[in-house]
Amino acid sequence: MDTVGPAKADLALTGEGADKTQALTYPRIDCRNVSVYYDDKQAVFDVSLAIHDRAVTALIGPSGCGKSTFLRCLNRMNDTIEGAKVTGDIFMEGENINSPDVDPVLLRSRVGMVFQKPNPFPKSIYDNIAYGPRIHGMVDSREDLDAVVEKSLRRAGLWEEVKDRLSQPGTSLSGGQQQRLCIARAIAVRPEVILMDEPCSALDPIATARIEELIDELRKRYCIVIVTHSMQQAARVSQRTAFFHLGNLVEMGDTDQIFTNPRERRTEDYITGRFG
Amino acid sequence: MSEHIVSAFTDELEKIAADLMRMGGIVETMILDSCTAVDRNNHDMARDVITRDPEVDRLEEEVERQIVSLIARRQPMAHDLRSVFSALKTAGELERIGDLSKNIGKRTLMLDESVPVAMRHGVARMARPVSLQLHMVLDAYATGNAEAAKTVWESDDDIDQHYNSLFREMLTYMIEDPRTISAGAHMLFMAKNLERIGDHCTNIAEFIYFQITGEYLIPHERPKTPNTGI
């Protein structure tokens, strides 16, 4: 079975209603001994962790701790950086995504990404969403495409706000709306995993709350990994939290445990504001 | 534990702990003094205990106010979170201990010289181990000693047994001389108040243990003599 690339028949995406305990029962991504080097400098050291499906996993840690670098391993975004080298194995559905046989473009349609700064294409709202399904050949007709656009915008909680102006440029939206547009764009290609790299750090508290509400909604269908500098945000939106420091994974556990009773002194010092 | 990067955060947590210790100190003497007042039939002392209670109430409010404000402004995590949670709950328990001691003082005012000395001694004898429980649990709080908190938690059964034996003793006085029934009834309530204070100390021990270790003490694992039906 071809496990890389969007499954065309799977219009239902993944099932709904999975609760938290079920969500934590099996991993979607299994990372083993992952190290990342930028030329001679090692940025991530031998990280092994499991990322669960239908759950939000938060990666936290001080600036330069390797959390964003690690996140970028999950859809091979480090391939695009000159001099970057990733070692170790990252299994999705039993397949090692670091294998040379894996097409990174198809991989990135399975593992969508949302960035710190909203980055809509300089196209209409409609085309921002339609772009991915079109190039991946996921739709056969205009009606199908319309349906995908509407469904994606609905899931991103943006449909009601933009349904009457789909032909306007994506960049005409507010910052928070643009970020939800980017999330809608990511889910339009029916990914299994959504990576978010500080998705709210450029947004005001109201727009942040809307994104967090959206993340909570998306968690029912997707595996979500979020890098955030806001510990409160990690505590609010995630079920699992991993703490990185100096390129090492210090501690990973249920979010409740990490924020009420961390096992490691370095985690405690960081989340209580005693670092350095 | 090292200090916060924002030093005012450390100062605020220390202020809460200091207010809590002050509350603890006041209620500890309230327990002892209320029972000394019973023992010596000293109404002035009983009235003095009663007048100290509003200060305890005020401190509880003060601790609560500081904690609400700290949560809103600093969003404490991990040990900090557990310590403000524990302080909030402990303040409530200390306030109740203050009320119960005040109540002993009020009942003392209803007794006169006719009450047999032996009955008075009974209540006074129970005050010592109860106030010691509080003293030890506050020490555990001040020193951050989880094992000391657990020791207090495990020894509440001694207080319960003391109460049961005092209960039986009071019954014998009342049976022997029905004129002591009125005083005996008051004294039974006093003894019950002391027994309740022991329970509040147990609760405080649980909060402190959680604050320090992040683990819960499980109530049904606490040593307990089978219920005597009292």
Automatic annotation (TrEMBL), chain A:
Keywords: ATP-binding, Cell membrane, Membrane, Nucleotide-binding, Phosphate transport, Translocase, Transport. SUPFAM superfamilies: P-loop containing nucleoside triphosphate hydrolases. Its main location: membrane. One of its GO terms (cellular component) is plasma membrane. It is found in: Cell inner membrane. Pfam families: ABC_tran (PF00005). GO terms for biological process: phosphate ion transmembrane transport. PANTHER family: ABC TRANSPORTER I FAMILY MEMBER 17. This is Phosphate ABC transporter ATP-binding protein.
From TrEMBL, chain B:
SUPFAM superfamilies: PhoU-like. GO terms for cellular component: cytoplasm. GO terms for biological process: intracellular phosphate ion homeostasis; negative regulation of phosphate metabolic process; phosphate ion transport. Keywords: Cytoplasm, Phosphate transport, Transport. Residues 20-107, 124-207 form the PhoU domain. It comes from the Bacteria. It is found in: Cytoplasm. Its main location: cytoplasm. Homodimer. Belongs to the PhoU family. Plays a role in the regulation of phosphate uptake. This is Phosphate-specific transport system accessory protein PhoU.
